[in-house]
Amino acid sequence: MEDDLLLNFASEPPAKKQKVKVTGGKWKDRRKSQLASEGRGRNEKKEKLGVNQTKLGDRTKDVAPAEGEERPHKTAFPERRGEGGKNNTYVSSLFTANPEIQDRPIAEIDVLSPSNAPLDTSSFSGLGLNDRINAHLLGQRIENPTKIQQQVIPRLLAGNNDLFVQAQTGSGKTLAFALPIFQKLMEIPNIDRTSGLFALILAPTRELATQIYSVFESLSRCHHKIVAGNVIGGEKKKSEKARLRKGVNILVATPGRLVDHIEHTQKLDLSKIRYVVLDEGDRLMELGFEESITKILHSISSTAVPLQYPSLPAKRISILCSATIKSTVKKLGELSLEKAELVTTSEQITKVPDQLVQQVVVIPPKLRFVTLAGTLKNLIKDQTASRTIVFFSCSGSVDFHFIALTRKAASEDTSGTLFGSSIFKLHGSLSQQTRTSTLKQFADSPNNAILLCTDVASRGLDLPHINNVVEFDPPFALDDHLHRVGRTARAGSLGKSVLFLLPGDEENYLKIIEPLHPSGIQFKKYESVLKEAFEKPGEKGGSWDTQATTFHLDLERWLLEEPRAKEIAANGFISHIKAYATHLASERECFNVKKIHLGHLAKSFGLRETPKKLASGGERKKKEDGKSKMLRMAKMHLQAQTDEFNTFG
Ligand SMILES: Nc1ncnc2c1ncn2[C@@H]1O[C@H](COP(=O)(O)OP(=O)(O)OP(=O)(O)O)[C@@H](O)[C@H]1O
């Protein structure tokens, strides 16, 4: 019998256990004694694994229970008495007792031509950029400006107006402000690092700040005496101070860390700043940086001195960039801009790029893990150096799926392999050093690479050539969807995005995202995903479900053998549920935590225990009313989100 076609059931037909009532003492002790009396102590775990396995030829075929076992619910997969206490746990089948999924036509969609691509009709030199910068761009195969660059570059080169720049994700906003600012500094006679700090760029996350800094750093090849620096927190403040003391002309910073330096680094002189860029304005506000930004802007204004450089504007020019329009961005505009000109492109910025192919797979909760694995396998099939990003709702879920896919129970590992590809994890609870090196490894990987992450990677990050985005957990807001899928299909390139939804209420989310997708949405059946991924060559039409089941059960078995991994799974499950409870009230008709089948969802985390037991740690807790539970969860999630993006040192 082939090993991978086996399913394990109970080992020796268990002799019927005598139930012994245990009373007195602590609940844990009572439970231990109860289990021991039933012969279900810890040491039995191994015996239960992998012995007396039964071939599953047909997913719906009912297999006779071992002697001494009860036949469970008729439609369910044959169950095994597990390690449960009062409520026994079951090894349920992946493919039975799943909720129904609405039938939808599965048509191919016509992909439109790119909406954020460089335009053939215009050149950078035509916009007023000098030869050195042009040559530098050509060296990077950047030949024609995008629409937003066409509009912003001449305005910044010529003008004295503040700008409110709104454009689609991946439309080249960074170069739109970086190129003219750099050129203006190039025009300062004898500029060097001691001439002063002239441009400040504020970004919401350390990753984004690092990325913008590297754009300026690479531009310094056009004039090696212009020095860019960054202060982003998470790194040693001492070395940042030393950098500021030596002098920089362009500073890229996260707001929290910059305020810290304003207060404690005497050498930091903001008086010559003539350009302030607020990148990802909506995110800066969402992360609560309003107060820090106000302080920074006030410090700049209150120390400003007149300059004798004719190439620089007489007064400070502020540029606010955002891919989405929100009331919070408008508020940031009021705070930072003066008589600003709105610069936007004709295409609807609140839509995804036209060329993006959006797929949706509706998956019963039990099948989420195996369908994720199948999706990843299919996406990298026939590829050699593809890049895929998978978004999760919380760090706990990233940690679990990383260990589950790589089978590495040591949580400090951030890289591994899956289906011959490199796989990485990234979230805000990792140290800054780890985050930076993980992103670099992911970007530089010579083979196919997959990044499992939270929304820490959803904003502004320009990872090169991302082919696919998978939203394993739905976004918490529509803007998040735009930003997540916006990591692919950048600057006119093609890209695919896959959204996972649960059957039932979550299917309503389709109606919400449909207007954002000019090319339409392609519906995919999870069965076809699994079939493509798991069908053995030459065995068409039969083996895929068995293979998928085996793949999943291997995870369950592994968790039983690895207590640390099981702990990570339990934590991942609990964090996932908590994060789910914080979906916007306005989207409750799609994401209602009360309607989730917790048992089925726990199975997708490889867990056989009842979720109630997991969530409470087995202890009875005082009943909490619904409202205070929601508030508590929302608070926890907000805290987790801020931690996720913690830009402070
Ligand atoms: N004119 C161009 N031609 C070709 N590639 C370009 C051009 N301009 C920018 N790019 C590339 O396109 C990618 C996206 O640019 P950028 O990160 O500035 O987009 P963005 O508008 O800031 O997106 P987001 O809003 O998602 O942060 C980068 O890799 C950049 O090098």
UniProtKB/TrEMBL annotation:
GO terms for cellular component: nucleolus. SUPFAM superfamilies: P-loop containing nucleoside triphosphate hydrolases (SSF52540). A motif (Q motif) lies at residues 122-150. Residues 122-150 form the DEAD-box RNA helicase Q domain. Pfam families: CTE_SPB4, DEAD, Helicase_C. Residues 1-87 are annotated as: Disordered. Gene3D superfamilies: P-loop containing nucleotide triphosphate hydrolases (3.40.50.300). It catalyses: ATP + H2O = ADP + phosphate + H(+). Residues 375-538 form the Helicase C-terminal domain. Residues 154-343 form the Helicase ATP-binding domain. InterPro entries: DEAD/DEAH_box_helicase_dom, Helicase_ATP-bd, Helicase_C-like, P-loop_NTPase, RNA_helicase_DEAD_Q_motif, SPB4-like_CTE. GO terms for molecular function: ATP binding; hydrolase activity; RNA binding; RNA helicase activity. Keywords: ATP-binding, Helicase, Hydrolase, Nucleotide-binding, Nucleus, Ribosome biogenesis, RNA-binding, rRNA processing. Its EC number is 3.6.4.13. Residues 39-49, 56-84 have a biased composition (Basic and acidic residues). The keyword Nucleotide-binding applies. It is found in: Nucleus, Nucleolus. One of its GO terms (biological process) is endonucleolytic cleavage in ITS1 upstream of 5.8S rRNA from tricistronic rRNA transcript (SSU-rRNA, 5.8S rRNA, LSU-rRNA). PANTHER family: RNA HELICASE. RNA helicase. Belongs to the DEAD box helicase family. The Q motif is unique to and characteristic of the DEAD box family of RNA helicases and controls ATP binding and hydrolysis. This is ATP-dependent RNA helicase.
